[in-house]
Design brief:
This protein is α+β, with helices and mostly antiparallel strands and 535 residues long. Helices cover 27% and strands 21% of the residues. A seven-stranded antiparallel sheet has the order 4-3-5-2-11-10-12. Strands 6-7-8-9-13-14 form a six-stranded antiparallel sheet, covered by helices on one side. The structure holds iron/sulfur cluster (SF4).
């Protein structure tokens, strides 16, 4: 395939994007990158002026912040963009800062991405354009989608995914879940080779690492990148002619493969998104596996970097991150959380009258706890359905207000009762304390906090924003110190062994680093999500 040059070419992205621009897309300025085949970058998109500026950091008053969700669809003849939209909706809990969908019609890539929730980024008109139905053009045959929470790079439009890169064998779009722990080093190395960057995200580093890797095929280039990149990188990648889906050799983040009713294929971070798209779950993509789907069919190979026995799937997916209706590694997460609650009741019983959950993520574990303890389970805290998992950060002084906005206790149910309140984790403690205070104000006679994971004492460098070590309350306080800080009458955490048994499968195939500090890969000495922006 021949590429247009800066001064024009045999076929022109510029023409394509100019045509788009007259509809809703903003055409490209001169490419900021210097490559062997210079073209104008096709990807500069519409958006509100303020989007280019850093948005206020989202405040999530409950637990660590999520990571990202990825989707991939190969279904010629089907409405692939609409399917990707539905899949992204199902993955909205994994990232609420921005969303994007890229499609290919077999010859050209198109993209729409913006800051915001999936429902605000896409409307009918956008999806019709992506489907090529507005111009009677060629219908796309494949799509990728991404919903983002930033763990490297701020929440600005240039960092929104999918990201674009160009190579001598074609162009690619890439959406990524995870965190490259050597992104700074790789970016410096690529920069020394004359490759320029237009964003501060590690995803662009990964995309350009693949684009500029040696190899005659995309699969070879991805495999090369596997040997250079360190950290967590589950991704979907779209070229003009192929969909590529892959998990890093350690397999930190999940990826599920499904079959669409019309014969196509779908991949998604979680099986619940496959369900939403109408796909039948086939299997998990293996750690280190690269799946390529194109007109010739489906091929899979395992990177030589991957070694059996070395995979470490994030255990926190089972505790909190993934949806309870997703199946990961053969385990329905609802069941896993129910079992965590049962084991928590055995390890940390309490003299109590009823069990409640901090909704929604702790509900299955609270039910399991109540079942095992022979106590009634009640909804003592009602969660506002209209406050997303993130919203604009309130001033530090109004943190209590933020918690009150999200949760409302039922005094009629709690008054005079000894209450077990089950939650998935305590990170900084700044959310649990107002919740305990709220329950006490509602008249609870005693509050026994039970956590269905171990004490979080170490930061995550693999794509989950837990904060720095000094921010983790369990890293600096004894068990009783944490109890006192949150104002509970008693506090109990599930042991690591019980958590792993509840999750099931091979217990040595899980990452538990935020609990025990045993990192399965090299990690940086410091945690700085804006490191690439400072360069
Ligand atoms: S450190 Fe914790 S959150 Fe991060 S990948 Fe490991 S288990 Fe998951």
């Amino acid at each position: 395939m021949q590429y247009p040059t800066r001064t024009g070419g045999p076929w022109s992205h510029e023409t394509h994007w100019r045509r788009r621009r007259s509809l809703s897309w903003v055409g490209a300025g001169p490419t900021p990158i210097r490559l062997t085949h210079p073209v104008r970058s096709p990807i500069h998109l519409t958006g509100h002026p303020g989007e280019a500026l850093a948005a206020d950091p989202p405040y999530q008053p409950h637990g660590p912040r999520e990571e990202c969700g990825v989707i991939g669809i190969w279904a010629p003849g089907s409405a692939v963009a609409r399917m990707a939209y539905v899949g992204l909706h199902a993955l909205q809990h994994r990232g609420q800062e921005s969303a994007g969908i890229a499609v290919t019609d077999g010859g050209q890539l198109s993209l729409h991405k913006r800051l915001g929730l999936v429902s605000s980024v896409f409307d009918d008109e956008t999806l019709i354009r992506l489907e090529g139905r507005d111009e009677g053009g060629r219908r796309p045959k494949a799509a990728i989608g991404h919903t983002r929470y930033s763990t490297t790079g701020s929440n600005t439009l240039p960092n929104v995914q999918p990201v674009y890169a160009r190579a001598d064998i074609g162009e690619l779009m890439l959406g990524h879940n995870g965190n490259l722990t050597n992104a700074t080093w790789l970016r410096d190395e690529l920069t020394e080779q004359g490759i320029e960057f237009g964003s501060a995200s590690d995803t662009e580093v990964l995309a350009k690492l693949i684009a500029h890797a040696p190899g005659r095929s995309w699969a070879q280039r991805v495999d090369h990148a596997f040997h250079r990149a360190i950290g967590a990188f589950t991704f979907t990648m779209l070229t003009e002619t192929a969909l590529v889906a892959a998990r890093d050799p350690i397999g930190f983040r999940p990826l599920a493969l499904g079959r669409l009713p019309g014969g196509g294929w779908a991949v998604a971070s979680e099986s619940a998104a496959l369900d939403a798209m109408g796909a039948r779950f086939v299997r998990d993509v293996d750690a280190g596996e690269v799946i390529t789907i194109d007109d010739d069919g489906v091929s899979s190979h395992r990177s030589s970097r991957a070694s059996p026995g070395k995979e470490r799937l994030c255990v926190f997916e089972f505790v909190y991150l993934a949806r309870p209706d997703s199946v990961i590694d053969g385990r329905l997460l609802y069941e896993a959380r129910l079992e965590m609650g049962r084991r928590l009741a055995r390890e940390h019983p309490a003299d109590a009258d009823l069990v409640i959950a901090v909704p929604d993520s702790a509900i299955p574990a609270a039910i399991g706890y109540a079942e095992e303890a022979g106590l009634p389970y009640r909804e003592g805290l009602i969660k506002s359905r209209y406050v997303g998992r993130t919203f604009i950060q309130p001033a530090q002084s109004s943190r209590d207000e933020a918690v009150r906005l999200k949760f409302n206790p039922l005094p009629e149910l709690l008054s005079g009762k000894r209450v077990v309140v089950v939650d998935d984790s305590i990170v900084r403690g700044t959310t649990t304390a107002p919740i305990v205070q709220m329950l006490r104000s509602a008249g609870a006679a005693a509050i026994h906090v039970r956590i269905h994971s171990p004490q979080m004492k170490h930061p995550c460098y693999m794509g989950v924003d837990t904060g720095r070590k000094e921010e983790l309350i369990a890293a600096s306080h004894s068990l009783d110190g944490v109890r006192a800080a949150i104002g509970a009458d008693s506090l109990g955490y599930l042991s690591k062994a019980a958590m792993l048994e509840a999750v099931g499968g091979r217990t040595d195939a899980r990452c538990t680093a935020c609990f025990d500090g045993i990192y399965p890969t090299d990690v940086p000495l410091d945690l700085d999500k804006l490191a690439l922006e400072r360069r």
